[in-house]
Amino acid sequence: MEFTEAYKQTGPCCFSPNARYIAVAVDYRLVIRDSLSFKVVQLFSCLDKISYIEWALDSEYILCGLYKRPMIQAWSLTQPEWTCKIDEGPAGIAYARWSPDSRHILTISDFQLRLTVWSLVNTACVHVQWPKHATRGISFTRDGKFAAICTRHDCKDYINLLSCHNWEIMGSFAVDTLDLADIEWSPDDSAIVIWDSPLEYKEVDEPLQIDMSELCLTDDFIQQNSEDASEGHFRVRYEVTEAPITLPFQKPPADKPNPKQGIGLLSWSNDSQYICTRNDSMPTALWIWDIRHLELAAILVQKDPVRAAAWNPTCTRLVLCTGSSHLYMWTPSGAYCVSIPLSQFSVTDLKWNSDGSCLLLKDKESFCCAAVPLLPDESSEYSSCSDD
């Protein structure tokens, strides 16, 4: 792997959907860099510190959430003189996002009083009262023609169906949930799935049985990496442990409200064959499940809690970080570690670009990118050491 030098950041960073640009928040400024040369191609000045960044799907527009104002500013890469400012006033802004057509912005007010759809074409706006959540509860069809929005009033959850052509409500129906958690359209747009919160205990008729004694890891999983540090020479590597094993467990503190427990991280692989999960009561363990065979594929037990994990969007490769100076990767052929050759750079978050060729790695006050080589054929084996 090849790494760039570190660049300053003070907030969110993200690739554009077409993978050509990287947007970086540096205090009040929005810096747009070319993802290949890393030269600054645009520089926009915002009215306050940037809390949130999101690209439009066409990569032409980008919005910045200035939630302390509260305000939204949007910019155009092709027309730098064009700008848009959305100020909700006393209602506030808890969250903002783009619609699939890249020409409308959806904002959620504080306390979920209303959802507003703002048009960049004719400056019109449409309101939807009582959205259930700020950052969740909205799902679009694959073709972007319809939206399903969760609302709640009179102590009951509802689903509103909207046409994205004119943003009129086509219909609304109640759902039998205690506390609706989120909503999602099916891949073929023929159905809507909703799920409830875990407030009410329910038993599963046929729970998935996992026999840890049958977990067998091959020598392909033994990978190691080394680096020279100021304290001396040390190795970072995965070691195979025979099953059954005892995983590190953290009991939630009883004296703190809303302790972290349950599944705090879940992500599908690009081919839908694997799911990775992290139980917040066992934050150092990342579970990888084989959905096709309904079995556990691997458990990666780290020294420190798993901060972030992301699947490559084009192949079955998982990357995770733990706030250390190393990246940890897993494929069906094995797991391995990669050292980051930057001084005092600890990875706290990571993101893939859309074609899976590059990783964006965030430190506390800087970021860098890493060019990721293509996976070898599944029949080939990894070498026992990786120090690229």
From TrEMBL:
Cross-referenced InterPro entries: Centrosome-WD_assoc, WD40/YVTN_repeat-like_dom_sf
Gene3D superfamilies tied to this protein: YVTN repeat-like/Quinoprotein amine dehydrogenase
Membrane-traversing stretches: none
Tree of life domain: Eukaryota
One GO CC term, this protein: MWP complex
Family matches, as PANTHER family: WD REPEAT PROTEIN 8-RELATED, WD REPEAT-CONTAINING PROTEIN WRAP73
Protein name, per record: WD repeat-containing protein WRAP73 isoform X3
Organism from which the protein derives: Punica granatum (Pomegranate)
